[in-house]
Design goal:
42% strand, alpha+beta, 2 helices, Aminopeptidase
Length: 113
């Protein structure tokens, strides 16, 4: 379930323009930050080690929630770590471009589902 953020931010990437939310399922918790740029959302996620096995489920639910609650056509995810790239690819994101600090992945609304 996606809910308003409270508690530990797990060191998530963000600035004053990012809204924070969290996915909670029992003892598992994944934190998300998003900012809207036109018709796009830019998203980050973070969690503690004990929640790693739940990240794919959390991302899928968060993406569905974003497309239901925001007027956006695409979600972008800037990523540095190879292991995280593999996770988002399993959630339907595709590589868009390589940037100086990692890669940008995208999930258009039309590919979601």
């Amino acid at each position: 379930m996606i809910e308003d953020f409270k508690g530990d931010d797990c060191g998530i990437a963000r600035d004053e323009n990012h809204a924070l939310f969290q996915w909670v399922h029992g003892k598992y918790r994944v934190v998300f930050s998003i900012t809207q740029k036109g018709k796009a959302l830019v998203a980050h996620f973070a969690c503690r080690k004990e929640s790693l096995r739940q990240v794919k489920k959390a991302i899928r639910e968060f993406v569905a929630w974003c497309f239901e609650n925001y007027a956006c056509e695409v979600i972008f995810a800037p990523i540095e770590k190879k292991s995280v790239k593999r996770i988002v690819e399993k959630c339907g994101f595709t590589h868009l471009l390589t940037a100086p600090k990692g890669d940008i992945y995208q999930l258009p609304r039309c590919r979601h589902g």
